[in-house]
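Figure 6 in text form: structure in, sequence out.
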């Protein structure tokens, strides 16, 4: 039957329990259960984790815990009854468990294991406390708790948990202690954690007996002898260790002795591994000594170790062997930081001369190496050392290995720094120093041994009273060392004699001297002795000094049996007496023996004066002298005989009071003050015991009071007051004697003379008040006397309470304290601190604990504290006094008197406390110290002390106190001042870090007290400061306080753990909600005064609404509607509310506040309120805008705070930036985010994007002198200065981003401004920079980025990405696969789509992330630039990939049935064009797609494009190989390319196109494609001719072993030619009819077709001419690499070299038609000159997308991921530059000459060109050092033999404008040729070499020869060379140019201007009219087109 349990209410599962039995409860180990019922070995109940599930479980699985039951019945509660520390450990370990696992997840492995070790340790300690099998002692239990709390604090600190305030190891309840005490407990706990303290002390140690005393820390040195490695001494040995002070030259410790056997092990086997000692009682002073550990090795055996003949083996001598030392100066520093022992090796040295043995350790220390030697390399001692601190007994309790007896205690010589009353010691330290002995008729000197023994007067030898060293038992006789053949031995051997006190008198020491012969039988022959008694006749012991003893001759041992025969003899010179000499012994006058002694005894004395005092009755006439000489007795002697001395003094006082009273009083004062010394402080207990148990002077009080009064009264007159100050310092014990004496007298006389005693005490206090009231600033001695009185006064209160009532004593004290001056400020000396110390000790005394005494004392105490606080003096001491006051009040809170005491404190202290706190906080912020004499006042500790005091006072205040406080203010100004102070202090408590973050208990209590005070003060504010009395400052301070209060981190419950949150909520509730209600109520009561806080309080209130607490938000959000309504009434709009709300929302959200729930709630609540207003439409618009802004701000914050990539962060910033500009028009926020985005770009090295971003701000500025305010990092400056600085920065960024084309217009803009201001220095700088940028454009290589289209589909993407597609600029060298991996890495949850089709609606609305990525091809905007033949490829390359908004993506497909035999018939291309919102590059590396266009390309158009691409590729490749050296054999790429075209093995070649499109059926079926078929046919014919040129080049370069392959290619080429259709086109015939004749019979044909990009001039000998159209397209589908554009290097030669240059001339492009202009002249059939332009277009590999023209394709290089940007229209500066208005953008637009009166601005808009305009070429720079001829040309322009340049002129052309002259520098040409050679060696993957430097010739006239009649003058200026550009193909990666390295020339020219040895002058060639000029031999023109090749 189930029955309710009586005692078994709580339990813990000790096993896991799982059962299939019905109704059972599953339990885990350690799970707590609540037991309800019991039945036959089963419990019924529930788990504390799941209280709603009840079940049964076995009793044997549960450990029942003791508990206390409350509320018995249905609501009963059971609380476990266990130790508070155990409970804390249990709860803390559960809290640590989850945090501990997170350490491993966050890779904090080291802390993980450390915490695990601490947790295991805590569980073990907890088990020891909870176990019932062992009974712990009280001290052991305290030690365990101390260790547990230290571990708990350590873990809480390292895991980031709160600090736990404790008292006596237990957590304190903050409701039971005062706030000040709680603060002190926090401080104590923090200090314990920081210093790893194990002490259980009060936060503030109280003075004992009127003195603040702290026992010095004792140090102990542990020494462990581990081994002694010797060279096989083979004899027993004694090893001594002691501490030696080199500076003083003496030992400071006893000796530790280890005895080893001949094998080196301990003589006693039980001492193995126990050879340890502890050198005890080392003081701090000792630690600073020059200490050494000295070790001496003494062997016991033969006289000589190496000579076995000397002495019989049975005779053993103690002989010196070796010595070792260890310097401790560095060792002590090392081992003081270690917890374990550290090993050291001591090398043992032997003494070279035994006569120096006594100082061998000093010789070793001083390194006198001639006096010692090392016996071997491996000879020494191995010891380990460890430094311990604390009491020895406590160390023995804590360390079991010390208490087991395995450690010997080696004491310090003499007394330690602290002498304990219980110490019993009587040790005599004896040192055998030296002796002088006669030879005694011996031929050699003696071997002398000294035997020491202690004997009584009757001759009895005292047994076992000699110790050679600690660690070995005492012996009866000690035998000294034997120094070989030395009559003047110096032993310096110390021994200890622990003689019992009762045996000391009558005993004497006897020293027997023996000669140890090595020749006889080894007998030790006695030849003399010395002796000395231990105590002299006057009762004093042997003095601590060196003693010279007489030596008496003695030959027989039997003569010494009777000591009476020699004790009557003098032992030394001091004992010489005129008595008769003894006949038994004769003194040897030539022999002496020296010893030294030192006595350490607590019972014996060596002082004669002390003995005279104790025996004063023997000399009564000398009492005065004896008392006067007491001051000369050492303190050690006095404390040893303290009780005897006191009895003697009072017996003298009773014997003759009148005569000896003052002398006894002075002696008593001396003894009392002696106990103030820390060394004797513990003897105060002996003094107290004597007073209460042994003191019997019943009449002494009268004389003591009289002497006290006399001393007080003398203080006003005496100049020297040292003795008076000593009396004041001894006041405590003097009063103890007075009170005890009066008590004895009263008991003896039944209370007689009581009134006289009271009067005398009152008179005494009047004297004290008189002394304290004296105010003499110039009298230092008086000040010291007052200080002594104040220091001793509180110590007498307890004694007075024995004789007087509490009220009487309180009146004594009040009058004494009131007699003090209010403020005593004397320069250099101040009584203020001592006065406050007196007050503090008064508060801490037992007297102040009585309510009736507090009523008397509190006003005067508060008065003094108030004065000090007001003057900012001794703040720390004042705070300490207040802490004690509030602690007492809290303890007595139930007393009725507390209310009155709090009232007094409020009136006296509240205002001054507020003022003091404001001053401290202000000074701490400004880092200024408050003036004070004792310590810095503006520390955090000072602030915390006063804050805790203020909080304590407010906590004790009730509503009545607040009511009285408000009523006491005399005016509203005073009330306002108070309100401002208290609100300001509360605000500072919220803002400043008064309490550390982990002081959560203190922080919560502070918040609770502030909330309570604010709620009580709010009604008074409403009553006095609303309506007509409204005060803005008071209300503003209140609102600021409320906002700070709600936002303080310690109240944000959402950030806490569930258990902590529940604990706080149960105790305090959610204090934020309470304060929010108060704030809302105060706001509603403002009425019309609300307008004063609009818009000032919008930001603070917005911060409150962002607190993640639903109730707070619901209360506060409607206030914004209130503000909008009030401003609408006032101004007709709410612009101020709108502006302020948007500004503050940005900053607050960026700080981490707000969420999506807030956004929805904000919109919902405000829209609901606005619906009823007349201004509904504007309000809804405003709320909608703010809501959208919050969406973007939240996205931006999430990106910035999370581990997002820089690309996402940039995208969010761009999105937010555009929103501020386009929708909110917030310029300041717009500028702020411009700079944030710029900084992100700079961090990512996106300098181009950073420049475009900063350009947005640059465009907002104007060139005028308007002042601008300070913004971000910009100082206050004029707008011109800011724009100029920004311009310089922009130019720099464009330069670093290698976008020099964008930087040049900015340079010109700056140049115009500088020129207009005549700032020529800046103008020079910017002009040089512009010129440098031109050079960089032409010289430095830039990679073309690739572009990728990315689609973000799904609702899981951020708002700014969701269901949008972007085009991204890839990184350098980034391919599609790498870009895709990067994107998937940035979005790890995304799924990559494997098809390019548009996603359906299901994907768009799915809760997932889908990425669709594929490469796209840019469609350049500047098509005109790309179609110009004269524009270098480096410039074209820039415009192919910059300022691009259109991108294409091609997808091949088959329309209709697929022809299996020839798939080209149905192969269509689906071309998608993406149009971006903004061009790339821009302010971001990626922009959103704005529009999509889709077209389809027919199969025929595709075929035309494919063949066109292949022809261009072949031309480029052949031109590259033509420039190779003849011996080059790396023609693999050329061979494979030719074979791929000729063999037609892969795609069927052009034959497939013939079959598909030249078929009659196709032609007839598609009449509209006639032009395209004709174009395809011509392209095929062009391909044949290009292949012919390629085979010719291949024939020259092919390796002999590859000749068969070449022959095969030639054969297949013939087959290919024969297979082509030869149908002529009409255009061909027209061109043939319009033939152009070249020199020497060459026919020059021009072939032109519609749509051609450029024409190629083909020169042949007897063959037809073909117009070869250059195709500039590249693949956008499968091709990831395309060959770059090339210049074809040609040289027109004479007819003799036609065959040599045939293959070269076939690749030369014809002159392209240009519109007429001044800069670019056309040459037509009328005889004017023609232009030859190199073809500047990339040759691309064929692909499946053949229909893209060159202007539509580009080779893309990856860039960084990017997003939406500001429009390019916002940057008109660059619009014209990159091609706007349909015009063709030049590389760098020229400066247009300004119209009359027009501002010649360099704005980019001035550079717009018409569609037909062509750009001028760049001006040439430094042609002398840069123009080089191509190495691959058969002929090159050469200089005349004398080194001058050849002059070429055209005499037949009357309108020729110029002639060109070249100067080739040999050094520069060598550099460039070497560079070309190195590029050719590196090559590309197919072996194609990089191109050499090239010359771009933009005017044929520059290359035409001069007329024969032109003069060959060398003196005149050289002819002008027009539009010649040098473009190296390889440049440094840095954008700053560097000179090329020197290299050997690889050209065939021997020097500058030289002519090749293997060729003569090449004939010139002139292209022009039918009439050609004739040339003479030497003047024959030499023309060469030097053009380079570029390789991707």
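Output sequence:
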């Amino acid at each position: 039957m189930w029955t309710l349990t009586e005692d078994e209410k709580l339990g813990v599962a000790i096993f896991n329990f799982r059962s299939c039995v019905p109704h059972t409860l599953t339990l885990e180990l350690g799970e707590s259960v609540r037991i309800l019922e019991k039945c036959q070995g089963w419990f019924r109940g529930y788990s504390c984790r799941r209280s709603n599930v009840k079940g049964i479980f076995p009793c044997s699985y549960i450990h029942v815990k003791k508990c206390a039951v409350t509320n018995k019945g249905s609501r009963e509660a059971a609380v476990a009854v266990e130790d508070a520390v155990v409970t804390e450990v249990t709860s803390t370990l559960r809290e640590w468990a989850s945090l501990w696992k997170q350490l491993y997840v966050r890779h904090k492995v080291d802390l993980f294991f450390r915490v695990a070790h601490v947790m295991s340790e805590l569980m073990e300690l907890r088990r020891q406390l909870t176990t019932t099998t062992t009974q712990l002692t009280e001290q052991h239990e305290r030690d365990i708790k101390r260790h547990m709390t230290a571990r708990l604090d350590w873990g809480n600190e390292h895991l980031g948990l709160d600090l736990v305030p404790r008292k006596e190891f237990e957590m304190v309840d903050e409701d039971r202690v005062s706030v000040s005490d709680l603060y002190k407990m926090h401080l104590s706990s923090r200090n314990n954690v920081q210093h790893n303290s194990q002490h259980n002390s009060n936060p503030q140690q109280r003075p004992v007996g009127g003195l603040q005393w702290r026992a010095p820390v004792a140090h102990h040195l542990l020494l462990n002898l581990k081994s002694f490695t010797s060279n096989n001494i083979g004899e027993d040995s004694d090893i001594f260790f002691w501490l030696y002070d080199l500076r003083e030259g003496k030992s400071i410790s006893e000796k530790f002795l280890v005895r080893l056997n001949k094998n080196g092990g301990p003589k006693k086997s039980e001492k193995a591994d126990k050879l340890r000692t502890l050198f005890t009682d080392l003081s701090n002073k000792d630690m600073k000594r020059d200490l050494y550990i000295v070790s001496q090795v003494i062997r016991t055996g033969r006289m000589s170790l190496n000579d076995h003949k000397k002495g019989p083996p049975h005779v053993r001598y103690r002989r010196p062997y070796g010595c070792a030392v260890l310097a401790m100066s560095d060792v002590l520093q090392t081992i003081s930081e270690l917890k374990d022992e550290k090993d050291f090796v001591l090398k043992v040295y032997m003494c070279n001369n035994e006569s120096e043995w006594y100082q061998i350790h000093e010789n070793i220390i001083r390194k006198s190496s001639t006096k010692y030697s090392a016996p071997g390399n491996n000879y020494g001692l191995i010891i380990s050392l460890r430094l311990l601190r604390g009491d020895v007994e406590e160390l023995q309790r804590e360390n079991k290995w010390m208490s087991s007896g395995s450690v010997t205690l080696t004491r310090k010589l003499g007394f330690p720094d602290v002498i304990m009353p219980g110490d019993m010691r009587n040790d005599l330290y004896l040192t055998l120093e030296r002796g002088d002995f006669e030879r005694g008729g011996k031929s050699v000197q003696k071997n002398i041994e000294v035997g020491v023994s202690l004997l009584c007067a009757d001759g009895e030898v005292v047994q076992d009273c000699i110790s050679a060293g600690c660690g070995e038992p005492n012996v009866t006789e000690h035998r000294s060392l034997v120094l070989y053949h030395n009559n003047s031995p110096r032993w310096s051997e110390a021994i200890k004699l622990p003689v019992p006190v009762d045996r000391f008198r009558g005993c004497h020491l006897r020293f027997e001297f023996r000669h140890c012969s090595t020749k006889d039988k080894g007998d030790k022959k006695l030849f003399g002795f010395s002796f000395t008694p231990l105590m002299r006749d006057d009762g004093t012991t042997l003095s601590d000094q060196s003693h010279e003893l007489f030596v008496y001759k003695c030959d027989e041992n039997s003569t010494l049996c009777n000591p009476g025969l020699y004790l009557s003899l003098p032992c030394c010179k001091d004992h010489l007496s005129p008595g008769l000499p003894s006949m038994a012994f004769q003194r040897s006058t030539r022999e002496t023996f020296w010893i030294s002694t030192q006595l350490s005894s607590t019972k014996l004395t060596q002082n004669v004066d002390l003995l005279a005092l104790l025996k004063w009755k023997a000399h009564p006439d000398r009492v005065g002298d004896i008392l006067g000489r007491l001051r000369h007795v050492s303190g050690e002697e006095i404390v040893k005989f303290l009780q005897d001395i006191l009895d003697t003094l009072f017996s003298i006082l009773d014997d003759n009071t009148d005569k000896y009273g003052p002398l006894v009083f002075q002696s008593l004062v001396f003894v009392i003050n002696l106990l103030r010394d820390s060394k004797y402080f513990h003897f105060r207990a002996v003094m107290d015991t004597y007073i209460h148990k042994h003191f019997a002077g019943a009449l002494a009080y009268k004389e003591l009071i009289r002497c006290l009064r006399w001393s007080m009264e003398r203080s006003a007159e005496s100049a020297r007051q040292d003795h008076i100050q000593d009396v004041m310092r001894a006041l405590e014990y003097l009063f103890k004697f007075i009170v005890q004496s009066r008590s004895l007298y009263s008991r003896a006389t039944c209370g007689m003379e009581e009134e006289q005693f009271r009067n005398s005490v009152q008179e005494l206090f009047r004297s004290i008040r008189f002394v304290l009231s004296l105010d003499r600033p110039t009298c230092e001695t008086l000040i010291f006397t007052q200080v002594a009185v104040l220091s001793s006064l509180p110590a007498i209160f307890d004694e007075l309470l024995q004789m007087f009532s509490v009220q009487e004593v309180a009146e004594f004290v009040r009058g004494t304290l009131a007699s003090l001056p209010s403020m005593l400020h004397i320069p250099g000396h101040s009584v203020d601190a001592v006065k406050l110390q007196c007050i503090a000790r008064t508060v801490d005394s037992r007297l102040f604990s009585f309510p009736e005494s507090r009523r008397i004392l509190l006003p005067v105490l508060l008065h003094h504290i108030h004065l000090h606080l007001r003057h900012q003096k001794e703040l720390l001491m004042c705070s300490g006094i207040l802490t004690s006051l509030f602690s007492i009040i809290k303890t007595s809170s139930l007393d009725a008197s507390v209310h009155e005491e709090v009232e007094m404190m409020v009136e006296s202290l509240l205002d001054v406390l507020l003022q003091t706190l404001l001053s401290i906080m202000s000074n701490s912020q400004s880092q200024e110290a408050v003036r004070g004499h004792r310590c810095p006042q503006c520390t955090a500790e000072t602030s915390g002390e006063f804050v805790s005091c203020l909080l304590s006072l407010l906590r004790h205040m009730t509503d009545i106190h607040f009511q009285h406080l408000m009523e006491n203010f005399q005016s509203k100004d005073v009330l306002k001042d108070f309100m401002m102070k208290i609100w300001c202090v509360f605000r500072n408590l919220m803002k400043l870090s008064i309490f550390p973050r982990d002081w959560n208990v203190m922080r919560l209590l502070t918040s609770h007290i502030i909330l309570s005070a604010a709620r009580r003060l709010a009604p008074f504010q409403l009553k006095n400061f609303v309506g007509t009395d409204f005060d803005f400052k008071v209300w503003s301070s209140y609102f600021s306080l409320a906002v700070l209060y709600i936002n303080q981190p310690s109240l944000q419950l959402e950030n806490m753990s569930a258990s902590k949150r529940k604990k706080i909520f149960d105790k305090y509730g959610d204090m934020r909600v309470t304060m929010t209600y108060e704030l809302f109520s105060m706001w509603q009561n403002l009425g019309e005064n609300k307008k004063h806080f609009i818009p000032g309080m919008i930001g603070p209130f917005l911060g409150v609404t962002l607190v993640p607490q639903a109730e707070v938000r619901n209360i506060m959000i409607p206030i914004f509607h209130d503000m909008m309504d009030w401003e609408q009434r006032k101004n007709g709009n709410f612009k101020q509310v709108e502006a302020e709300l948007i500004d503050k929302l940005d900053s607050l959200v960026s700080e981490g506040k707000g969420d999506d729930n807030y956004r929805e709630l904000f919109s919902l609540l405000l829209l609901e309120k606005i619906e009823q207003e007349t201004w509904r439409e504007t309000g809804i618009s405003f709320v909608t805008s703010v809501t959208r802004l919050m969406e973007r701000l939240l996205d931006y914050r999430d990106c910035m705070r999370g581990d997002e990539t820089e690309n996402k962060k940039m995208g969010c910033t761009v999105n937010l930036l555009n929103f501020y500009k386009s929708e909110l028009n917030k310029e300041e926020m717009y500028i702020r985010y411009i700079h944030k985005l710029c900084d992100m770009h700079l961090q990512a090295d996106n300098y181009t994007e950073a420049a475009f971003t900063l350009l947005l701000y640059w465009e907002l500025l104007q060139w005028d002198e308007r002042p601008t305010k300070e913004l971000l990092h910009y100082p206050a400056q004029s707008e011109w200065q800011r724009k100029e600085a920004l311009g310089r920065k922009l130019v720099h960024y464009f330069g670093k981003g290698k976008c020099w084309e964008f930087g040049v217009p900015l340079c010109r803009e700056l140049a115009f401004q500088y020129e207009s201001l005549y700032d020529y220095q800046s103008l020079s700088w910017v002009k040089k920079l512009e010129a440098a940028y031109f050079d960089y454009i032409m010289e430095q290589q830039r990679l073309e980025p690739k572009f990728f289209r990315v689609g973000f589909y799904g609702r899981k993407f951020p708002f700014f990405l969701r269901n949008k597609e972007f085009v991204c600029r890839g990184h350098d060298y980034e391919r599609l696969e790498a870009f895709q991996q990067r994107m998937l890495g940035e979005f790890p949850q995304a799924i990559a789509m494997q098809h390019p089709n548009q996603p359906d609606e299901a994907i768009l609305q799915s809760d997932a992330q889908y990425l669709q990525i594929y490469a796209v091809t840019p469609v350049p905007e500047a098509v005109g630039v790309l179609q110009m033949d004269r524009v270098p490829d480096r410039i074209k390359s820039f415009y192919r990939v910059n300022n691009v908004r259109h991108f294409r993506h091609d997808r091949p497909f088959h329309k209709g049935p697929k022809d299996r035999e020839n798939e080209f018939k149905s192969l269509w291309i689906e071309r998608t064009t993406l149009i971006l919102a903004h061009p790339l590059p821009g302010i971001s590396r990626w922009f959103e797609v704005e529009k999509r266009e889709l077209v389809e390309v027919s199969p025929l158009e595709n075929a035309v494009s494919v063949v066109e691409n292949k022809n261009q590729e072949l031309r480029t490749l052949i031109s590259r190989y033509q420039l190779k050296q003849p011996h080059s054999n790396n023609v693999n790429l050329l061979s494979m390319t030719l074979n791929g075209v000729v063999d037609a093995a892969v795609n069927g070649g052009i034959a497939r196109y013939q079959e598909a499109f030249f078929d009659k059926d196709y032609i007839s079926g598609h009449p509209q494609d006639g032009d395209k078929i004709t174009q395809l046919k011509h392209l095929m014919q062009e391909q044949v001719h290009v292949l012919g040129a390629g085979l010719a080049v291949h024939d020259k370069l092919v390796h002999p072993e590859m000749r068969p392959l070449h022959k095969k290619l030639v054969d297949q080429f013939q087959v290919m030619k024969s297979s082509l259709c030869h149908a002529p086109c009409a255009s061909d015939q027209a061109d043939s009819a319009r033939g152009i004749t070249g020199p020497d019979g060459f026919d020059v044909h021009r072939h032109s077709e519609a749509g051609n990009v450029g024409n190629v001039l083909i020169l042949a000998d007897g063959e037809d001419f073909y117009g070869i159209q250059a195709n500039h397209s590249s693949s956008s589908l499968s091709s990831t690499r395309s060959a770059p554009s090339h210049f074809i290097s040609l040289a027109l030669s004479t007819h003799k070299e036609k065959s040599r240059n045939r293959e070269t001339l076939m690749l030369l492009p014809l002159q392209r038609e240009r519109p007429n202009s001044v800069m670019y002249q056309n040459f037509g059939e009328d005889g004017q000159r023609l232009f030859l332009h190199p073809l500047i277009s990339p040759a691309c590999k064929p692909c499946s997308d053949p229909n893209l023209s060159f202007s539509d394709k580009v080779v893309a290089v990856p860039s960084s991921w990017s997003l939406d940007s500001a429009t390019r229209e916002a940057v008109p500066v660059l619009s014209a530059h990159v091609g706007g208005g349909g015009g063709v953008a030049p590389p760098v637009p020229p400066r247009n000459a300004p119209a009359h009166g027009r501002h010649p601005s360099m704005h980019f808009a001035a550079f717009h060109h018409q569609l037909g305009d062509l750009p001028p070429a760049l001006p040439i720079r430094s042609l002398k050092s840069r123009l080089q001829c191509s190495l691959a040309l058969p002929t090159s322009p050469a200089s005349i033999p004398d080194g001058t340049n050849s002059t070429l002129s055209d005499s037949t052309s009357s309108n020729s404008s110029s002639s060109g002259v070249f100067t080739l520098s040999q050094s520069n040409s060598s550099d460039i040729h070497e560079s070309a050679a190195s590029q050719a060696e590196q090559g590309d993957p197919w072996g194609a070499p990089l191109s050499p430097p090239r010359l771009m010739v933009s005017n044929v006239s520059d290359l035409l020869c001069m007329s024969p009649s032109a003069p060959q003058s060398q003196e005149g200026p050289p002819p002008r060379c027009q539009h010649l550009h040098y473009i190296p193909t390889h440049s440094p990666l840095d954008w700053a140019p560097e000179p090329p390295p020197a290299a050997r020339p690889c050209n065939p020219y021997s020097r500058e201007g030289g002519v090749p040895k293997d060729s003569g002058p090449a004939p010139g060639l002139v292209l022009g009219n039918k009439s050609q000029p004739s040339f003479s031999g030497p003047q024959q023109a030499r023309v060469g087109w030097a053009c380079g090749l570029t390789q991707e």
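Caption detail: The first strand starts at residue 3 and ends at 4.
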